[in-house]
């Protein structure tokens, strides 16, 4: 199997008997950029480009990402073993196969909090094996926030372990449970995780869900928790709009999120449901959005002077270092600095870093560029951890 996205693009292009110029034209990129992608010299630098290439080739994004289980990788094996039980639990909930819970109310409440703490640490490999039993028990406590929250944890965990196809149904369960609960803040949280769980090709659907959620959340803006979710949904709608190349709408959602953040300020701690919504999180999201739009210099400018060491949520720290590494690697002239940032991203959340196909693509491109000279020992070590041969 090709180790980078470009290799898979080339395989599918040849299967479709299409020229580089035809695919580049259909995807809205230059033939030169496509050639560099196929040869592994450049990573696919945005979700929108990935979606455009998939459409040009008439394949799913997953076909280009190559998200398969490697039986020799212990991290992937652990993830796969845990996800098998989550899949069964999700099906049972979908068909209404609900039995009495095995945990009492206090134990259940403590287990929900423990699950959230594991997510705070991005320790998805420890959280995943707990989720089948937690989903089963949470369904036995109607009228509480247990199922909304555990299904939310399941959706986030599955997405970060590379199982987006299961992340989506878990998010739907969270949405249904949040509606039954009737708490606007949790309804907003469920909508937020749902928009992030949808396939990249479904950016238009994600944007619509987000905009519908915003209407509901604006009715309850007096609740600070709901306002945090209002801001978060604006951010997810901005991302969906940028993936769909609707720049004007993306900017409008970002401006609304900035207004909410300016009035709320940074949270004293993690924020509602670990959202960490506030001006600092806006800055992190803006870095992601600028990188998505190919504005890497603006992303680097936002990173200057920003320290994330004190952020109490691992995936926010990882997002900063990943986006910074991605921006630095863009030109191919700052790969050493990019590697430092990627190493920090790996330390913040090792499993999700290792299982992220876009991470693999960045490192693979750096390896290919380095072959003109010599692959540095630390780059070779990271490639090895990601299952990429530096040879």
What characteristics describe this protein?
single chain; 391 residues; mainly alpha; 434 Repressor (Amino-terminal Domain)
Report on the architecture of this protein.
The structure is a single chain. The protein contains 22 helices and no strands. The protein is an all-alpha fold and 391 residues long. The protein folds into 4 domains: 61 residues, 434 Repressor (Amino-terminal Domain) (Orthogonal Bundle); 112 residues, no CATH class; 76 residues; 108 residues, Tetratricopeptide repeat domain (Serine Threonine Protein Phosphatase 5, Tetratricopeptide repeat), CATH 1.25.40. Helix 11 runs antiparallel to helix 12 and helix 12 runs parallel beside helix 14. 52% of the residues are buried. The model has no long low-confidence stretch (mean pLDDT 90).
Number of domains: 4
> What radius of gyration results from the CA coordinates?
21 Å
Query: What's the pLDDT, averaged over the residues?
Result: 90
Query: Low-confidence runs (pLDDT<50, min 5 residues)?
Result: none
Total helix count?
A: 22
Order of helices and strands: HHHHHHHHHHHHHHHHHHHHHH
Helix content: 55-70%
Q: Oligomeric state of the chains? A: single chain
Beta-strand segment tally: 0
- Global shape: globular
* Strand percent estimate: under 5%
Sheet/helix structural class: mainly alpha
Largest sheet descriptor: none
Q: How far apart are the termini?
A: 15 Å
């Amino acid at each position: 199997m090709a180790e980078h996205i470009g290799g898979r693009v080339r395989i599918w292009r040849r299967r479709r008997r299409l020229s580089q110029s035809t695919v580049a034209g259909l995807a809205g990129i230059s033939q030169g950029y496509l050639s560099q992608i196929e040869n592994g010299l450049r990573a696919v630098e945005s979700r929108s480009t990935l979606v455009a290439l998939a459409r040009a080739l008439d394949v799913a994004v997953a076909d280009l990402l190559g998200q398969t289980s490697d039986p020799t990788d212990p991290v992937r094996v652990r993830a796969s073993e845990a996800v098998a039980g989550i899949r069964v639990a999700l099906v049972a909930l979908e068909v209404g196969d609900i039995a009495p819970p095995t945990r009492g109310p206090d134990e259940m409440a403590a287990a929900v909090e423990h699950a959230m703490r594991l997510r705070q640490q991005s320790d998805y490999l420890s959280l995943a094996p707990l989720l089948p039993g937690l989903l089963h028990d949470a369904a036995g406590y109607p009228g509480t926030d247990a199922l909304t929250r555990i299904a939310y944890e399941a959706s986030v965990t599955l997405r970060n372990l590379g199982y987006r196809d299961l992340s989506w149904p878990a998010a739907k369960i969270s949405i249904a449970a949040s509606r039954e609960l009737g708490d606007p803040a949790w309804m907003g949280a469920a909508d937020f995780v749902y928009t992030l769980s949808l396939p990249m090709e479904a950016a238009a659907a994600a944007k619509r869900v987000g905009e519908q959620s915003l209407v509901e959340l604006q009715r309850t803006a007096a609740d600070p928790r709901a306002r945090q979710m209002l801001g978060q949904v604006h951010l997810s709608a901005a991302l969906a709009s940028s993936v769909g190349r609707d720049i004007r709408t993306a900017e409008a959602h970002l401006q609304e999120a900035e207004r909410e953040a300016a009035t709320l300020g940074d949270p004293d701690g993690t924020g509602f449901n670990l959202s960490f919504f506030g001006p600092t999180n806006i800055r992190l999201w803006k870095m992601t959005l600028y990188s998505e739009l190919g504005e890497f210099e603006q992303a680097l400018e936002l990173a200057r002077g920003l320290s994330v060491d004190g952020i109490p949520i691992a995936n926010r720290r990882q997002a900063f270092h990943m986006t910074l590494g991605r921006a630095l690697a863009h030109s191919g002239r700052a790969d050493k600095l990019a590697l430092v940032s990627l190493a920090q991203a790996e330390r913040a959340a090792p499993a999700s870093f290792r299982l992220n196909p876009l991470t693999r693509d960045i490192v693979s491109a750096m390896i290919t560029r380095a072959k003109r000279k010599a692959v540095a020992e630390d780059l070779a070590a990271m490639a090895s951890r990601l299952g990429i041969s530096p040879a």
